[in-house]
Amino acid sequence: MRSYGVVYRRNCMLKELRDYSSSWMIKGLMIVLASTFILWGSGRISGCNEDVAAKVNGEVISMANFHVIADQQLNLYREQMRLYFKKDLTAADEESYRKIVFTNLIDEIILKQKAAELKVPISSTETKESIKELPYFQNEEGAFDYEKYINIVRSYFRKTPEAFEQEKYEDLRVSRLEWIVKNSVLLGTEDKEFETTFKKEKIKLGFIALDPTSFEDRVTVDPAKVKQFFKEHTSFFTTPTGQTPNFDSIADEVSKSYKKDEAKKYAKNTGKELLAECMNSKKIETIQKAAKKNNLTVENTDYLGRNPSGYIPKIGTDFETMKDLFMLSKENPCMNEIKEISGKHYLIWLIDKKEDAPQEENDTYFGKNYVETRKKDSFFTSYKKNLEKHATVKKYMYQDNEKT
């Protein structure tokens, strides 16, 4: 979670974004903001003794805590999608989003633990001032209202003021750790990268979305293989108390897990076969024929340009993929790997590329800051992945992504 000066500025920015919500680029940014709120703005509800959802280096995430946080963030995301995209979430969308919340909650705890280990300094004054800056604790004149603060903390967050302040102290620590890590990277904008990144280009893409759930009906459930799957993934079915249930008592659950696992492999392998066709022929017609043979749908995007959010219409948000897309050419139109975005596998290729408007005077300034911000974000992402790699995480839900 970030410092509350940042949260306050973010609320102001949300208002500005709503004023200019007709821009597709702003809509993309809203998606990033919505996903950012999951990691940094959720808050944790304490005091629950329900079943365990996960353990992170021994620290427990209760099932009750997870569902409260997931529900809060899902409601926010649902509102954003309706407001900016006029779209309702499907049951599959909501389940996919809950998985993201779950993963981000684990990442948040890992960062919190690292900040505590490094003893990142935050004073009690900073904590109190950051809380006073939150607009929902202020009166109509914009001043901090202590009575309003107490009521909201107890009724909405369901915490004592002391517990709430301790949590905000930990959040500020994480925010400062992020700032320290990002500003430790050495910046030096390469001319070639700068030129490539900020050419005023527009691209149109073709893609095939390989959703593992759509491959489940292609999986043949072999009882012998299901039992073998259970033996190889016993830890997935272990209860929070450490007990391993008898196979016969959870055979249906194991069978469903096996089917989902095989469907993922099926989707990924199909994507690899299509990718090979694309890389070998470099012709769109070949991909279209291969897709038809596999009963898959080929879709196209409208023309799109680079944007800071990394949002790719009809596909999702992935900054590195956005960057790679603009390296495609008529000679090499296919992405050289299958991209996994929001639980789906994507084969993407270039249909057309064209120059857009000439560069504006402020492009150089914007471009330099854009590249530097991306480098800092990339460095921090690598830092987080390294922490996750060395963390001991035991999951009792969404176990197909278990990290140990």
Given as residue ranges, the uncertain stretches (5+ residues, pLDDT < 50) are 1-49
From the spread of the alpha carbons, the general shape counts as: globular
Beta percentage is: 5-15%
N-to-C order of helices and strands: HHEEHHHHHHEHHHEEEHEEHE
Number of domains: 2
What is the total tally of β strands? 9
Query: Helical residue percent?
Result: 40-55%
The number of helical elements comes to 13
Distance N terminus to C terminus? 24 Å
Overall mean pLDDT stands at 78
Descriptive notes:
This protein is an alpha+beta fold and 404 residues long. It is 53% helix and 11% strand. Helix 5 packs across helix 7. The protein starts with a helix and ends in a 9-residue tail after the last strand.
Quick structural gist:
The protein has 404 residues and is α+β, with helices and mostly antiparallel strands.
Structure characteristics:
single chain; 404 residues; alpha+beta; 2 domains; four-stranded antiparallel β-sheet; three-stranded antiparallel β-sheet; 13 helices; 11% strand; globular; disordered N terminus
How are the elements arranged and paired?
Blueprint: H1 4-19, H2 24-40, E1 52-56, E2 59-62, H3 63-85, H4 91-117, H5 124-132, H6 146-155, H7 161-182, H8 191-197, E3 201-210, H9 223-232, H10 251-281, H11 284-293, E4 299-300, E5 311-312, E6 316-317, H12 319-325, E7 339-341, E8 344-355, H13 363-389, E9 393-395
Antiparallel strand pairs: 1-2, 1-9, 3-4, 3-8, 5-6, 7-8
Helix pairs in contact: 2-3, 3-4, 4-7, 5-7, 9-10, 10-11
